[in-house]
Prior knowledge:
single chain, mainly alpha, rod-shaped
Amino acid sequence: MTPVIDCVREADVLEAVAFDRLHSVRDHLRTCASCAELAMVASAIRRDHDAGCREARVPSAGAVWWRATIRARAEAARTVSQPITFAQGAAAASVLGLAFGFAGVLWRWLSGFASVGEFLVRLRASDDVAAAAAVVLQHALPLALGLAACLVIAPLALYLALSDE
Length: 165
């Protein structure tokens, strides 16, 4: 859609409003209603623009620089902490896996106590020290491995939980 030009001096009127020189086109504005209306609307827009410029609070360059620096540091810290967060999640998943594995081994070991009576009868009947040691090692090995895993993982878990960063 092409703009409709009512007067050939509209560009002069807009320029006069833009540079605050309406006095140069006063005579034309008295004779041309289209340009007078254009000058009135353009003057209102210019007044609003000037008022907005006066009311705008532009921060100092130092404040803008400081905010940009803080934002850049925060983004860098967030970027750097992503692998650490992933490692902490993997460590937590490993600890949970080991804990559930240990619980399963412990459950099997404790369920073996249901047959403690049979074990004691076999141990007493055989009087074989090697057989008794083998049975004890068979049941004690999973418990010892679980305890060793806890002794290794507990300091790591404490370090991750108590570290500042």
